[in-house]
Design brief:
Mean pLDDT: 98
Oligomer: single chain
Protein name: Ferredoxin
GO molecular function: 3 iron, 4 sulfur cluster binding; 4 iron, 4 sulfur cluster binding; electron transfer activity; metal ion binding
Structural class: alpha+beta
Pfam family, one: Fer4
Strand order of the largest sheet: 3-2-5
Order of helices and strands: EEEEHEH
Radius of gyration: 12 Å
Shape: globular
CATH topology: Alpha-Beta Plaits
Bound molecules: iron/sulfur cluster, FE3-S4 cluster
CATH architecture: 2-Layer Sandwich
Distance between the termini: 21 Å
Number of domains: 1
Organism: Polynucleobacter paneuropaeus
InterPro entries: 4Fe4S_Fe-S-bd, 4Fe4S_Fe_S_CS, 7Fe_ferredoxin, Fd_C, FdxA, RnfB_subfamily
Length: 106
């Protein structure tokens, strides 16, 4: 599966969802996750993300490993998003902030 990591928090550009052939993105208030039961590992979403938040599970950086479980856990309670709706209003102010896990709204 592919995994959305910390860079997405409070940005949520949503460019990624338009290209997913199996509609496996799920949306929360300020973050998206990928449903690991649906992702077919096609990788087309990776270059769409302006903040490079999406990684193959095997390539998730060491300091982002907790996001594998976060994606799996939140995918079951969040709802599907299949069309881009633009970024959060202050996305550009948050895109370079490194530690944002405390900002994640579930
Ligand atoms: Fe969707 Fe492919 Fe990205 Fe998985 S890797 S979330 S199937 S676009
Ligand atoms: Fe998040 Fe990047 Fe998609 S910021 S919503 S993973 S385009």
């Amino acid at each position: 599966t592919y995994v959305v990591t910390e860079s997405c928090i409070r940005c949520k550009y949503t460019d990624c969802v338009d290209v997913c052939p199996v509609d496996c993105f799920r949306e929360g208030p300020n973050f998206l996750v990928i449903d690991p039961d649906e992702c077919i590992d096609c990788a087309v979403c990776v270059p769409e993300c302006p903040v490079n938040a999406i990684y193959a599970e095997d390539d998730v950086p060491g300091d982002q490993q907790q996001f594998i479980k976060i994606n799996a856990d939140l995918a079951s309670s969040w709802t599907s998003i299949t069309k881009s709706k633009g970024a959060l209003p202050d996305a550009d102010e948050w895109k370079d902030v490194k530690s944002k896990l405390a900002e994640l709204v579930k």
